[in-house]
Design a protein that fits this description.
Protein name: Dynein axonemal assembly factor 6
Order of helices and strands: HEHEEE
Number of helices: 2
Mean pLDDT: 75
Strand content: 5-15%
Strand order of the largest sheet: 1-2
Largest sheet: 2 strands, antiparallel
Helix content: 25-40%
InterPro entries: DNAAF6
Structural class: alpha+beta
GO biological process, one term: flagellated sperm motility
Low-confidence stretches: none
Organism: Poecilia latipinna
Number of strands: 4
GO molecular function, one term: protein-folding chaperone binding
Distance between the termini: 108 Å
């Protein structure tokens, strides 16, 4: 019986030594940095932020540059309709090139007592500017 006890004890020690060696090798591999395709060539230069800037981009409210504070005219009533009217050309053929996203919304602006020739419309990617004499 003692022979079995000594043999199993030696087996456990050998297994422990084997496992501890693997852990040390794993620790050695983890201590080195992994290299990838991004490490080829010189490192990218960090862009310096504008030292002379008064405000950062996060501090400026989006769309505030389009507000005309000096304009005394009242802002007209408007509706932004995300639910679109779907016709047969949309259902079967897709001819109107509208999709259900907010980029294809409909905007209704109420301009009472205004003629179409007096309306100036400026449509950009981020804003819609409609001006009338009234």
């Amino acid at each position: 019986m003692e022979c079995l006890g000594v043999s199993s004890y030696q087996n456990l020690q050998a297994l422990s030594a084997l496992l501890s060696t693997q852990q040390e090798e794993d620790e050695d591999e983890e201590s080195y940095g992994q290299l990838g395709p991004g490490h080829i060539g010189p490192p990218p230069k960090k862009e310096k932020e504008g030292i002379k800037d008064i405000w950062s981009e996060e501090e400026v409210a989006e769309g505030s540059q389009y507000d005309d504070l000096a304009d005394p005219r009242p802002q007209p009533e408007y509706e932004i309709i995300l639910k679109q009217s779907v016709g047969t050309e949309d259902l079967f053929l897709g001819l109107s090139q509208k999709d259900p996203s907010s980029m294809c919304c409909e905007v209704k602006i109420k301009l009472p007592d205004t003629k179409a020739k007096d309306v100036f419309l400026d449509l950009k990617e981020k804003y819609l500017d409609l001006r009338t004499p009234k």
